[in-house]
Amino acid sequence: MKLKIRRSHTFVENRMTEAGKTARPPLRKVAAVLVIENPCAGRYVQNLEPMIKASAALGRELAAMAIAALAPYTAQSIGKAAIVGIAGEQEHGNALLSTTFAEPVRDALGGGKAWISSMTKVGSPGSAIDVPLACKDALYVRSHYDGMTLMLPDAPMPDEIALILCLANRGRLNARVGGLRFEDLKGKNGLV
Question: Treating both helix axes as pointing N-terminal to C-terminal, what angle do 99-109 and 49-70 enclose, rounded to 10 degrees?
């Protein structure tokens, strides 16, 4: 199965200051979005394996878009999401965000040993979604628990799925709740 891409979007957010403190480097969060035709819209399909297999190509495409938007920085945090149009099921979004999707993303990032946080839902154009972010190399790096809220005014139409990949170059500004630090990962168990 080849999934048909109808539109793409890229969003970039830069935070330079918070609580009167200037960030060095600034926090850059990016979202790459592919709006695809849902091949299962309007009907129940028992076997979603063809969608799962086809998601690898979407992972490669979204990774390339997100990495380009994050430049000149490299990714420390990652998250994924899908909004399924109302003629589809939430399960269609989950099928597209499986390990098959994630492995090409990890390859493009040059690693990413941690589980990738995700969110899926059924919605209509203009539905907001909060994409969770966490450290790509170790889930327990508290400074990197974050998110990015997106709203697509033109997607998803009833027969579409908006597939989203978010990256961030660092943890939250002024993070100070303790725990494992990203810097502590270097050299430990070959993580960073």
Answer: 30
What residues contact 130, with CB distance under 8 A and at least 6 apart? 119, 147, 148, 149
pLDDT digits (tens, 9 = 90+) for 47-94: 999 999 999 999 999 999 999 999 999 999 999 999 999 999 999 999
Taking the whole predicted model, whether its pTM rises above 0.90 is answered as yes
Residues in contact with 43: Cβ distance below 8 Å, sequence separation at least 6, in sequence order: none
Q: Give yes or no for a contact between 155 and 127, defined as CB atoms under 8 angstroms apart.
A: no
Domain with 82, as residue range(s), is 5-185
Q: Is residue 192 part of a domain?
A: no
Q: Which has the closest alpha carbon to 45: 105, 98, 114, 95? A: 95
User: Is 48 a member of any domain?
Assistant: yes
HSE, side-chain direction, 13 A CA sphere, residue 91:
10
The reply to whether 28 falls in a domain is: yes
CA 107 → CA 59, 102, 104, 125, 191, distances in Å? 10, 9, 5, 32, 14
Q: Is 99 inside any structural domain?
A: yes
Into how many domains does the chain fold?
A: 1
Q: Nearest 10 degrees: CA dihedral of 155, 83, 37, 42?
A: -110
185 pLDDT above the threshold of 90? no
